[in-house]
UniProtKB/TrEMBL annotation, chain A:
It holds the Pfam family PAPS_reduct. GO terms for molecular function: ATP binding; sulfate adenylyltransferase (ATP) activity. The keyword Zinc does not apply. GO terms for biological process: sulfate assimilation. NCBIfam families: CysD, PRK05253.1, PRK12563.1. InterPro entries: PAPS_reduct_dom (IPR002500), Rossmann-like_a/b/a_fold (IPR014729), SO4_adenylTrfase_ssu (IPR011784), Sulfate_adenylyltrnsfr_sub2 (IPR050128). The keyword Transferase applies. Residues 277-301 are annotated as: Disordered. This is Sulfate adenylyltransferase subunit 2.
Automatic annotation (TrEMBL), chain B:
The lineage of its organism: Bacteria, Pseudomonadati, Bacteroidota, Flavobacteriia, Flavobacteriales. It is an enzyme of class 2 (transferase). Keywords: ATP-binding, GTP-binding, Nucleotide-binding, Nucleotidyltransferase, Transferase. Its EC number is 2.7.7.4. This is sulfate adenylyltransferase. It comes from Lutibacter oceani. PANTHER family: TRANSLATION FACTOR (PTHR23115). GO terms for biological process: sulfur compound metabolic process. GO terms for molecular function: ATP binding; GTP binding; GTPase activity; sulfate adenylyltransferase (ATP) activity. Gene3D superfamilies: P-loop containing nucleotide triphosphate hydrolases, Translation factors. Residues 5-217 form the Tr-type G domain.
Length: 301, 417
């Protein structure tokens, strides 16, 4: 076989770097939406590669629900320092304090929906015209319909039935004042690709992804970590389990899975054998069959 | 991990009834790419709707409206991996009103699956899909003659359809066509070899997808490097560094090569080809790299670096096969923004030469209106020159889109003739 071809990971990397450079060329004030999860870490790593030897030209924007894993915040701050990047934090707690949004009530209350307002406020306040995300099309059925360059109107809304056709590698980022774009450089990656890439590039990720012992409660078919933010009732039983997280989000809704995988290679093997999607452990996606689509229409990540 | 595995992008065009969704569902299911919770969700929906068994077609519907109406509205992308390759499926709706989605899905595909219902044979829709596949120059066409179980796995029926298809494909620019008799519903020749068709000596579909030779589809002759952005670190270690970032569209670049920057025509020599992981002795398509030059010349976004002895055409007048994507038809002599690689200019549609009837392949010189889903040969004039190649030799430097500046929508896509 000819030596002039790329492996699938090299091709995905090259595609993502191309997309990130298009963002830099087409927008005035782009940011990376940084959650501290593996996907946004990979996007940040790709941005570092895309502009080398110059430093990463994007600010990192974090929407902080106030319900954090402390490891995530520590990781975020270390990475920002290492990159010499600018950090923008949008705080859900502040939005609650200011009366911009109201906390959900009841046992299954989450701050998931509240992030939408905070995210859109942060985008508007900082005059962001492009927010780069780590969303992947394999994650969820509404996300399978996303473009690389996804238009948001002046209210931050997504109109999935009226998307711009996207052909070859030509991206149309034209927009009017007040509108913005969401751009997803790793659209074509799967969870497996992300893990293989993390292994190949030796990318640092938060310790939460590796198997560790933790106090957890069995809720909605997954192990929810015990924390000061978790509302328990008399039926909930706190247990100590060896778990790891497949995704990282708000600590009150991110479920862990029982696992012994304590290295990236072991995780990759485990993921390859996995029979459930990673968002299967996210209670936010279980509310209805179209909960992701509904949130995305409003402006969610 | 088999990290030298390649990526194959393929498209499937088809309608609700020809079993396209079932085929994709089957590929994903038999290659163990459907997860339990996804299967549970589909099972629940199938039951609620009173379907018998699990309707694998439900797996491909992403938006609420699609699930409710049972139709695919938009391109959806699906992923699966086998020990041999990673696959990206662009799943596109096949109705005539969705030509734009078929074109979109086809634009990045290495291969296309064309489904034919064994009971109905070659129909208008087959011709339409084949035309688009040839227009978009998809290198490999796999004709799957589906629902063989409903024609008693009959070899003669298969041969009849193959002959009928050869007749239409002979009129088009299709390089590589293969035929496979399948039953997506029963699983014959999709992932596993059929026990019902001993007369078929070829490989099942998945095996064909795994072994298609795609490395040679990339143009390695014409070196083209559209500049996306200029890298100027201005830090202590790289004080005078000035690099041109981009993704190689085609061909091979090496340090020491004499190059020309277009449209200016300035010449220089490649000093280095840099990446985060180190400098390279050669780089080829589709690698994303940074090129530095020996001379300090003016290069910016939209420029194209080529080899001195092999240059693209530099022109303000281009002939294009244009697909119109917008509900509002083009106005006569309307002006648009044209995007070609990283180059953006203003453009005027000077003339519509003819419209193609995608069912009969005839040229219409009476009705030449650029309406939604129309495919027309047009003449375009740009304000500044573009560095172009024919689409048939170069998908990247041979393609354009038009953007309406009053709405910012992408209204058309074109292949340079």
């Amino acid at each position: 076989m000819s030596k002039y071809y790329l492996s699938y990971l090299e091709e995905l990397e090259s595609e993502a770097i191309f997309v990130l450079r298009e963002v830099w060329a087409q927008f005035q004030n782009p940011v990376i939406l940084f959650s501290g999860g593996k996907d946004s870490i990979v996007v940040t790593h790709l941005a570092k590669k895309a502009f080398y030897p110059a430093k990463i030209p994007f600010s990192l924007m974090h929407v902080d629900t106030g319900h954090n894993f402390s490891e995530t915040i520590q990781f975020r701050d270390n990475l920002v320092a290492e990159l010499g990047a600018n950090l923008i934090v949008g705080s859900v707690q502040e939005a609650i304090n200011d009366g911009r949004v109201a906390e959900e009530k009841g046992k299954n209350a989450t701050r998931n929906e509240l992030q939408i307002t905070t995210l859109l406020d942060a985008i508007e306040d900082n005059k962001v015209d492009c927010a780069i995300g780590g969303g992947r099309r394999d994650e969820e059925k509404a996300r399978a319909k996303e473009r690389f360059f996804s238009h948001r109107d002046e209210f931050g809304q997504w109109d999935p039935k009226n998307q711009r056709p996207e052909l070859w590698n030509i991206f149309n980022g034209s927009h009017f004042q007040g509108e913005h774009f969401r751009v997803f450089p790793i659209s074509n990656w799967t969870e497996m690709d992300v893990w293989n890439y993390i292994a190949k590039e030796n990318i640092k990720i938060p310790s939460l992804y590796f198997a560790h012992e933790r106090e957890v409660v069995w809720k909605n078919d997954s192990w929810i970590p015990n924390s000061e933010f978790l509302i328990l009732d008399e039926n909930d039983k706190i247990e100590v389990k060896k778990i790891r997280f497949r995704t990282l989000g708000d600590i009150t809704i991110t479920g862990g899975i029982e696992s012994d995988a304590d290295t990236v290679d072991k995780i990759a093997l485990e993921v390859a054998a996995m029979r459930k999607t990673e968002r299967g452990n996210r209670t936010d996606d279980k509310r209805s069959e179209s909960s992701m689509e509904d949130r995305k229409r409003q402006g969610y990540f | 991990m088999l990290d030298k595995n390649q990526l194959l992008r393929f498209t499937t065009a088809g309608s609700v009834d020809d079993g396209k969704s079932t085929l994709i569902g089957r590929l994903l299911y038999d290659s163990k790419s459907i997860f339990e919770d996804q299967l549970d969700a589909i099972e629940a929906t199938s039951k609620r709707r009173g379907h018998e068994g699990v309707d694998l077609a439900l797996f491909t519907d992403g938006l609420r409206d699609e699930r409710e109406q049972g139709i695919t509205i938009d391109v959806a992308y699906r992923y699966f991996t086998t020990p041999k390759r990673k696959f990206i499926i662009a799943d596109t709706p096949g109705h005539i009103q969705y030509t734009r989605n078929m074109v979109t899905g086809a634009s990045t595909a290495n291969a296309a699956i064309i489904l034919i219902d064994a009971r109905h044979g070659v129909i208008e829709q087959t011709k339409r899909h084949s035309f688009i596949a040839s227009l978009l120059q998809i290198p490999h066409i796999i004709v799957c003659i589906n629902k063989m179980d409903l024609v008693d796995y009959n070899e003669e029926r298969f041969n009849e359809i193959m002959t009928a298809y050869e007749e239409i494909s002979s009129k088009m620019l299709i390089k590589d066509v293969r035929y496979i008799p399948i039953s997506a519903l029963k699983g014959d020749n999709v992932v596993n070899r059929s026990q019902n068709m001993d007369w078929y000596s070829g490989a099942p579909l998945l095996n064909v997808l795994e072994t298609l030779h795609i490395s040679s589809d990339i143009n390695k002759i014409d070196a083209r490097f559209p500049v996306q952005t200029v890298i100027r670190p201005q830090n202590d270690t790289h004080r005078d560094y000035r690099g041109y970032a981009g993704r190689i569209a085609s061909g091979i670049f090496k340090p020491g090569q004499e190059i020309v920057v277009l449209p200016s025509g300035f010449t220089s020599v490649i000093k280095s080809i840099d990446t985060f992981s180190g400098s390279l002795q050669e780089a080829f398509a589709p690698m994303s790299v940074v090129i530095t030059l020996e001379d300090d010349i003016d290069v910016s976004r939209g420029d194209l670096i080529a080899k001195k002895n092999n240059m693209p055409q530099v022109s303000q007048d281009i002939d294009v096969m244009l697909c119109w994507f917008n509900n509002s038809p083009a106005k006569p002599r309307a002006k648009y923004k044209i995007q070609h690689t990283s180059n953006e200019q203003k453009a005027l549609i000077k003339e519509v030469v003819y419209k193609v009837n995608i069912d009969t392949y005839e040229r219409d010189i009476e009705d030449k209106e650029l309406t939604m889903n129309a495919i027309c040969r047009v003449k375009i004039r740009t304000t500044k020159p573009l560095m172009i190649d024919a689409y048939r030799t170069n998908r990247t430097t041979g393609s354009i889109i038009l953007v309406d500046e009053t709405t910012n929508e992408t209204v058309a896509a074109g292949m340079i003739v």
